[in-house]
Amino acid sequence: MNKFWVVCKQVIRKNIKSPTYIVLLLMPVLLLGFMVGVAAIKNHTSETPQIAIVSNNTTFRNALLKSNSKDYTIKRSIDTPKKAEKALSQETLDGYLTITLTGKQVTAVYKSRTNGNTLDTTSLKSSLNSLKMQQTATRLGLSPTQLTELFTPASFKKQSVSYSNGKEKTQKNNQQDINSLLAMVVTILIYIFMVSYASLIAQEVATEKGSRIMEILVSSVAPQVQFFAKVTGMFALILLQVIITAICGFLGMKYLSGNVQFLKDLDLSQIQPNILIILGLFFILGITLYTILAAGLGALVSRADQVSQAVSPLTMIGLVAYGASFVAMNSNTFLIKLGSFIPFVSQSIMPVRYAVGNASTTDAIVSLIILAIAIVLVTWFTTRLYANHVLDYSDKKIWKRIFKRN
């Protein structure tokens, strides 16, 4: 056991100082800094658009001036097209609205500068349409009661449901959005961690093998002990990055939720514990499966420069699974259903299917059990692969060595 921890600590000390791991460790910090910086710049540079309203009908213009909106500021002193054009050319105005009343017809044209602050014209259109309807109602001689009925909008409610084993289950309205967002974040993290640490642990094994240090290690430490010690050390490094990523994610959500409209609309209190558990288990098992297999593949190479060749099939499978997860967002075909139960791809597909309601909790548990069984089988196979090839320096092609003495 003492030898086990010696090898484990050596893996941690060696890799924690490597440029590759430092970059991986700093990636979420740099991404957080970038996103916060962009949000801060946007908040400090975006200003409320300055607009003017001109019309051939003073009454209509005055009524529109009384409408309040946070989306724009109206310069009341600018009341003619000539003044508006002059202010627009001098860049003291972002745009102006020209309203023309011809009989019963109301025409509005908004003219803006390309380098001015962008105006969301939704509220402006709403105010204009409201005044037009009031004018029409007055002309038609409608009573106040009739006018109220005219402006009363239709009652519209949105209800989200999911189906599990044919039974309907009511969900909160934006719960689906939160679940989908969580699933995509976890899927992206799974892919990044799988590719990064599969290469890292394969490189770790190949480097020692190429420098002939492995011959000394094998003479004092059994290959099986080395294998599990290296994998344990790599998991410790993964855990450190998960903690840093989680802290950056929490701080990012706390800051950006008040600055990004999409996050403002999400009620994070609706996150369900069961989906966090399911997604977390797929994250852990998916990374475990790829990391263990990559350690065995690293033992197949004779030199460190052959690592990419050894792990490239594993990387390609991970990429296919990552791409399939996006398809699973809007599709539930037979292939997607089948892929969500097949190890090496299920860790990316099933979380998305479960999040969007296309898979039940039972389906997710079955997929997790299959994935766990696959890890046990891969661990058994990879341990033998490592022990048989850790001192193999033959010139045979990498993939032919798998069947040698296995």
UniProtKB/TrEMBL annotation:
Residues 21-382 form the ABC-2 type transporter transmembrane domain. The keyword Magnesium does not apply. Keywords: Cell membrane, Membrane, Transmembrane, Transmembrane helix. It holds the Pfam family ABC2_membrane_3. It is found in: Cell membrane. It is a multi-pass membrane protein. InterPro entries: ABC-2_transporter_component, ABC2_TM. The chain crosses the membrane at residues 21-41, 181-201, 235-256, 276-301, 307-327, 334-352, 364-387. Its main location: membrane. One of its GO terms (molecular function) is ABC-type transporter activity. GO terms for cellular component: plasma membrane. It comes from the Bacteria. This is ABC-2 type transport system permease protein. It comes from Pediococcus ethanolidurans.
